[in-house]
Design a protein that fits this description.
- By secondary structure, this protein is of the alpha+beta class.
- The chain has 3 domains: about 100 residues, Beta-Lactamase (2-Layer Sandwich), CATH 3.30.450.20; about 80 residues, Helix Hairpins; about 160 residues, 2-Layer Sandwich (Heat Shock Protein 90), CATH 3.30.565.
- It contains 12 helices and 12 strands.
- The strands form 2 sheets. Strands 6, 7, 8, 9, 10, 11 and 12 form a 7-stranded mixed sheet that branches.
- Strand 4 and strand 5 form a beta hairpin.
- The chain is elongated and about 160 Å long.
- The N and C termini lie far apart (about 120 Å).
- Bound molecules: adenosine-5'-diphosphate.
């Protein structure tokens, strides 16, 4: 009996020990499993965060403004470009689209997406005190898996620069047409007069032929200048850079303009020191000097004095100055004088056969050399045009 009891006790103890060991083993396995799940979750969270950061960084690199709203019209995501377009700080999350953009038309577009699946190519103008902006909006309503509304994505393209370019182009075409039409109509009416019998009178014949020649020359100059500007604009102008003596370049131009200067009784002086050697394209440098010196003679006073001087700036660059003692240029005109077709004195420019393109060509050519151009002038006290060039390496 005792033996049986001892045996049962032995079995019970053995079973209890085995059960405890099994439970400990299970607990260990479960703990390891939980640890694994926990690690996986942490890993997934890190992955998700990194992925979100990558997406946000990608959105922030977009040129277009992007706003994602939820079904309640609140911002879920807005990239940097959107913040810049509408002037809201980058974390606009949680604000309504109206609060963030402060534009009712944008908010109205978001509301339209409740009824329409998408809006394509909607143009809107953001009025501002200084520069208005032109935007094109493309937007898409989002749906969740059950097909319910889940907010929308709005993408904003800034068309402001494009619009500005368009208006510059339109203005340019209008100006060119106007500039072409004036000499053409003068040539046409002189020809008609001759055909109507004017050619019988020898003096009239000469006068009208001179008119035709003058305006044909003006057309040639205009077309030459337009072609030059188009080459400069296209970036196809190849500069043949080489060491050029500034003094020699100025002398050459002064001698070319001698008869023009003597017609106005003007004296043109070359004050440039001989050792100044610029790194420039000699033909283009001549073109710049010719435009500036010719203007100084044309618009300077009768029997005036024009000087050309040059110095080396602290930066090591050479600054050339063309100075006249003419009527000068108003501050308002100085600010616009390098624009295409801008003329401070329209009548004077036309009378002198000017195209209104000379100074914009000067600016482009100097900039192509890496230099700068500017004017200093006061009404009644003459004008000085400055431009800079690099110094040739010894
Ligand atoms: P344009 O063919 O009319 O001479 P430019 O571009 O060379 O064209 O010059 C633009 C305008 O600047 C001229 O029409 C003239 O009114 C003004 N201008 C240029 N140089 C001078 C100057 N030295 N003094 C006064 N006005 C000048």
């Amino acid at each position: 009996m005792n033996f049986l009891l001892a045996f049962l006790l032995f079995l019970a103890v053995g079973f209890a020990a085995a059960w405890t060991a099994e439970r400990a083993r299970r607990q260990r396995t479960e703990a390891a499993h939980l640890r694994e799940i926990d690690e996986q979750r942490t890993h997934r969270e890190i992955e998700l965060r990194a992925q979100t950061e990558r997406t946000v960084a990608l959105f922030d690199r977009m040129i277009e403004g992007l706003i994602v709203i939820d079904a309640g019209g609140r911002i879920r995501l807005a990239n940097r470009a959107a913040g810049e377009l509408f002037g809201f700080p980058s974390p606009a999350i949680g604000r309504t689209i109206l609060e963030a953009t402060r534009h009712h038309e944008v908010a109205a577009l978001a509301t339209r997406l409740d009824r329409e699946p998408e809006i394509l190519g909607h143009e809107l103008r953001l009025e501002a005190v200084e520069n208005s902006k032109f935007l094109q909006v493309n937007a898409l309503a989002l749906r969740d898996e059950a097909g319910g509304r889940d907010g929308a994505i709005l993408v904003f393209h800034d068309l402001t620069q494009l619009r500005q370019l368009e208006s510059v182009r339109q203005e340019f075409v209008a100006n060119v047409s106007h500039e072409l039409r004036t000499p053409l109509s003068l040539i046409k009416s002189a020809t008609e007069t001759l055909l109507d019998g004017g050619k019988e009178d020898a003096a009239a014949l000469t006068r009208f032929l001179q008119i035709i020649e003058k305006h044909a020359n003006r057309l040639t100059l205009l077309i030459d200048d337009l072609l030059m500007l188009s080459t400069l604009d296209s970036g196809n102008m190849r500069l043949n850079l080489q060491p050029v003596s500034v003094r020699a370049g100025v002398s050459e131009v002064i001698s070319d303009l001698k008869s023009r200067a003597s017609l106005r009784g003007a004296v043109v002086e070359n004050l440039v020191a001989a050792p100044l050697i610029a790194d420039a394209d000699p033909d283009r440098l001549r073109q710049v000097l010719s435009n500036l010196i010719e203007n100084a003679v044309k618009y300077g006073r009768l029997e005036g004095r024009v000087t050309v001087s040059a110095r080396v700036l602290e930066t090591g660059r050479i600054e050339v100055a063309v100075c006249d003692d003419g009527p000068g240029i108003s501050d308002e005109a100085c600010a616009r004088i390098f624009e295409r077709f801008y003329r401070a004195d329209k009548a004077r420019s036309r009378e002198q056969g000017g195209t209104g393109l000379g100074l914009s060509i000067v600016k482009h050519v100097v900039q192509a050399h890496g230099g700068e151009v500017r004017v200093e002038s006061k009404l009644g006290s003459g004008s000085t045009f400055f431009f800079t060039l690099g110094t040739a390496k010894a």
